[in-house]
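Researcher: Next entry in the queue.
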Amino acid sequence: MEIRPVNYDEYNGVYQDDMIQRFSDGTLTDIEDVRKFIYGYATTSMYLDEGEECDETLPRWWRENSNNTDFHVKDDYVVPTLQEKLIIDALKSTGDGLTKETAIYVTEIEQEYDYMDRVYPDIIRLRKRQTLVTDDEHEYDMFTFRDNPRGIKELWFECSRIILREEKMSEKWIREKELNKIKKKK
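Model: Structure for this entry, 186 residues:
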């Protein structure tokens, strides 16, 4: 699998309304198309301006809402639905998460926990700390771990899109609050 960080400009405008249905019925299975679904949705006004999450981009949602009982094995993890496998594969295609430079790109915080739960179930309970790390261009969630058999000390998730959405939603909330104050004065 080719590892390629996400450039959101590349995904701007590629999300299509029928992608959820195609993903659900198993016809959207190419990893690049799944990346367009996940990262393309994160460029939409629904996501950025309205704050709407897309539950279908979360592995946990598929586990809880699918009647599919086939198990899909991928490298060192097993998931019960094809959609979970594809989401995890798409996340893995952005990096291995072992360093800041190879961080895994996420569009929802739940993707971080779902990823760790699926790929590293043996060490997820050995988390020591979660820290938000910011540099000039990116925000990261960095998880540190106690000693473990895999020797993993840190996992990095690039979460800039989530931070951007939250900032926009905060600004929107503040503007609405100010408008309500003005209306009450009249």
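Model: The mean pLDDT is 90.
Researcher: Noted, moving on.
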